[in-house]
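Table S2 (text version). Query chain:
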Amino acid sequence: MAMNEGQPRLGCGRIIDEVWASIDQPPTPHERTCQDCQSARAALHHLEAVTGSMRDRDRNDPALQPSSRVREAIMMVARAEVRRSRRAPLATTPLGTIDISKQALNALIRFAASTLSGVHARRCTIASTHKQPPPQTSSTQPAPALPSPVVPSSAVPSPRAVVDVEDVRITLTVALSSQVKIPATMALLRERVGTIVEAQTAITMHQIDIVVEDLYDI
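Corresponding C-alpha cell output:
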C-alpha cells in the first residue's frame, strides 16, 4: 500500500476509501482480478465484522449502560434546548421588538431564589399577557404613505436601558423550610428576584407571583 498526498492507496493505485465506499456491493470487474483490491476488501470485511461484534457487545454490557443520573442530565439538556427557542416579548422600540429567551430568564429567576436560605425553587413559568391590537378596518380610502421618520440618536436605547415588562407574568413555585417566616421570606424573595434580574438584564419586573406549595423539611 502506497501513500500519496496523505491518502492511503493500494498497489494498484486506488484509494482505500473507494474500496470501502462499495464494500457492501458486489466486486467490480477490476476488483475481481486485482489481488490488492481483493485483499483490501477481505480486510475491510473483517474489520466491519469485528467492529459490529464489539458494538453489539457494548450495547448489551450492563457496565457500559448510562446511569439514571446520566440519562436525566441528557434529558435536561434536551428540554433546555427545546425551551430555548421560546421567547418572551418585552418591549417595542423604534428599532424593533426586544425579547428574551424564556429558558435564560427562567434559569436566572431560579438562581435568584437559590440565594435565599430556606427556599427551594421548584417551577417557574413565564407567560406573556401582551395582546396584539385587532386589525383596523375602514371603508374609506387609505391615507397616503408618509416617509419613514428618522430616529434620532437619543431615541436609540442604550445597552443598559431599563426595559418595562408589564406584559410578562412570572409565577415561581417554591418549597420552604418550616423554620422561616413565610410572609417575610416571600417579600424578601420577590425583592431578591427583581433585583438580580434587573442587575443582570436591565429588566424591571412589575408582577412576580410566588406560590408556596410545600415545606420540604417536614
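Notes on Table S2: Residues 146-162 have pLDDT under 50 and may be disordered. The radius of gyration is 32 Å.
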